Input
Amino acid sequence: MRYFVIRTENLSKDFHRKRALANLTLEVEPGEVYGVLGPRGAGKTTLLHILLNIVRPSSGNVNVLGMDSQRQSLEIRRQVGYLPQVLEFPAGANGEQILTRLGKLRGKIDWDEVRSLAARFNFDLTKPSHTYNALDERKLAIIQAFMHRPDLVLMDEPSKGL
Output
């Protein structure tokens, strides 16, 4: 049997009378890179939210990293890096403190990877969040998505603000 990093089968999602996804069957193998393109309202963010069990599908099956997205969602979230469209940071905390808090939720942080990414992005981890501009916020959001060397990274509007 082939292993898929992402596998959906007849995935659909309805929000009241509006259908966001219709019978999506998708198979992503290890090492593949996919982009989901479409106009506003096409269901791109909804798909990512279903993969992470933030939103439940109306019908269909979803497996991420070989796990059922609903029954094993906590384990999936520990192994997946997620870059949302918008990530709000607590005021008064600096980048290192924010990443530490997020790492406690995720279960691990690779601080060598964090420092490497911060250097690559020319991002000061000691800078307080209330001084961030949109670019700083996006840089920190990207760092948090990769800070634990995930097996899979899901990015929603990855170039927004860059």
